[in-house]
């Protein structure tokens, strides 16, 4: 594991971010993309072509691109209710029970959160009316790695918020079927419809609508670079939750930290993706070396060793700094998706964190718990967007409408100043619409 000495060198190397859209695609992915889309030179260009085709050709384009990218041929996009019911017979009952346990905790957390976010109110006839979005489309990627947890973590907050129609898009396997465990998770979460579609074409179907897929109000959920750029492109046509990049974790540790646990937390995120970012920031050179040894030892125990190793070789490592204050400052600058604090008085230090999707304070609070059963959604801001955004929650599925319903007394109190400002701005019609009601018809 690479060890970098000093905060400035850490900023220049491990903690330097790559702009969205500059991701290097493997040659095999480029070849498949050009075979499906045509002679394109950038990912953005490929995404624009897919969006345009879906907008023009609807279901036919979605099916064509899903077959090209996923290698799955099927004729209908919507998964039937009978297929969802049959999925339970294909999933270990203990796993079904675990999904229900997780769903109960996620639901309970977001029901509590609902009491503390945007609420309707009115004072003297002026206020806000809060309503849930009508229809939401959620991207649920993965067939080789299925992520039923992501279905729970995105659909349940929407349902708790009161969204009437929650739709899921999932790629199908070569047999044309959505993985059974994902269908079970969708059913437990209360999803209304599941569609076998993926990638930029799924985002386009949600954004524009097709014969089979109704247009949604907002598109949510993680995905690869094609999904991320497609979400950015359709923003304005529909709402989006966020632009999600590869998983990233910073572990901040002092000399008292257990190197075995530090390595385990870093590897838990490194195994997600070859593009994941697992970084240790520590005040102890000795700990950094011990964690490096542990990473190598534990890598050999993983089913996804090659993926985790590639992530460490490309973007992983340790930065040794002078103090915990300096480590926290680096963490705030990077604004990671996950920030793990393995140090003395971790809960107190956590109060000083400004920028992170989630903070996991202390040795008994591994980030992996947050991925499954802690309760908050694991759909968290990445790529430094934790500087200005939050984890997915019920607030993402609510909107406020200003209500003005005043009587004559209130109009006489607040109207004259409004009319003066309107005339100062040169908007005579604005002013007269108030003055007429006040009995001044001049």
CATH level-4 homologous superfamily of the largest domain: Nitrogenase molybdenum iron protein domain
Q: How many structural domains in the coordinates?
A: 3
Rg on CA atoms, Å: 25 Å
Q: Tell me about the biggest sheet?
A: 6 strands, parallel
Mean pLDDT across every amino acid position: 94
User: Which word captures the global form?
Assistant: globular
Q: Biggest sheet: strands side by side, in what order?
A: 1-11-10-9-12-13
CATH C-level of the largest domain: Alpha Beta
* Derived structural class: alpha/beta
Quick description:
The protein has 442 residues and is α/β, with parallel strands linked by helices. It contains 18 helices and 14 strands.
Give a description of the structure.
With 442 residues, this protein is α/β, with parallel strands linked by helices. The chain is built from 18 helices and 14 strands. It folds into 3 domains: 3-19 and 246-374, Rossmann fold, CATH 3.40.50; 21-120 and 133-242, Nitrogenase molybdenum iron protein domain (Rossmann fold), CATH 3.40.50.1980; 406-435, no CATH class. Helix content is 46%, strand content 15%. The strands form 3 sheets. The chain has a 6-stranded parallel sheet, sandwiched between helices. The mean pLDDT is 94.
